[in-house]
Amino acid sequence: MNWLNSEAFTLFGQHIIWSDMTGNILGLITLALGWRRSLWTWPVQFLSGLVLFAAFYGHLTGSAGKQVVVMAVALYGWWQWQRTRNRSGDGQITPRFASWRERAAMVAAAGAGTVAVALLFQAYPSLSWDPWPDAYIFVGTIVAMYAQAKGMVEFWIAWLLVDLVGVPLNFANGYAFSGFVYVIYGALVLWGMRDWWLRSRKAARPTLEGAPA
C-alpha cells in the first residue's frame, strides 16, 4: 500500500498524495449522497475510511485507529437507515430536527469527547501532530455522523463547525487536497442543510382531515 502515500501531482506548490486525494474524494461523494438521503452514503463512507486506514496503517497508528472508529460509525449509520428508510413515502429516511435534549447531549458529548481525546493525544504524541484541533475534528466528525445516522438536520451544522477548523488545519499541515475538499464540503453542507431543513418542515406539517393527499 506504499503507493497510497506517494505523490499524485503538485497543485499550487502543494504535493498531493494519493491517499489524501482518494479518501477525500470518497468523503465528498459521501456528503453528496447524504444530501440525497441515499443509503449508499454509508458504504462509500466505509470505503473512504478503509482507504485512509490502509494508507496510515504501519506508520501513523493513531490516524489508522481513528479510521477504524469512522468505519464502525458508518456501519451503524447503514443499520440505522436500513431500519428507518421505509417510514417515508419515498423509501428514504425522513429528516427531522433534534430535540433540545438530544442537542444538549450531543454538545456535551462533543465537549467532553474533545477534551478526553486531546488529553489522550497529548499523552501519546505519536497519535496526533496537533492534539487539540485534531481531537476537535475527530470527535466532531463522529458526532456529525451519529446525527446523520439519526436523520437529524443538525448534522449539517456539526459538519460546518468541523470545517471551520479543518480547512486551516489541513492547509497548515501540508494536506492541501484535504483543505480544498473541505472548502467544497462547506458549499455542499449549506445546500444539503437547506434541503433537509425544508424536508423536515414538510414532514412535520400536520395534514388536515379531509385535505387532499
From TrEMBL:
Transmembrane helix in keyword set: yes
Matching InterPro entries: NMN_transpt_PnuC
Subcellular location: Cell membrane
Domain of life the protein comes from: Bacteria
UniProt xrefs under Pfam families: NMN_transporter
Keywords linked to the UniProt accession: Cell membrane, Membrane, Transmembrane, Transmembrane helix, Transport
Membrane-crossing segments per the record: 12-33, 40-58, 104-124, 136-162, 174-193
UniProt-listed PANTHER family: NICOTINAMIDE RIBOSIDE TRANSPORTER PNUC (PTHR36122)
Family under the similarity heading: Belongs to the nicotinamide ribonucleoside (NR) uptake permease (TC 4.B.1) family.
This protein's name: Nicotinamide mononucleotide transporter family protein
Naturally occurring in which organism (per UniProt): Streptomyces lavenduligriseus
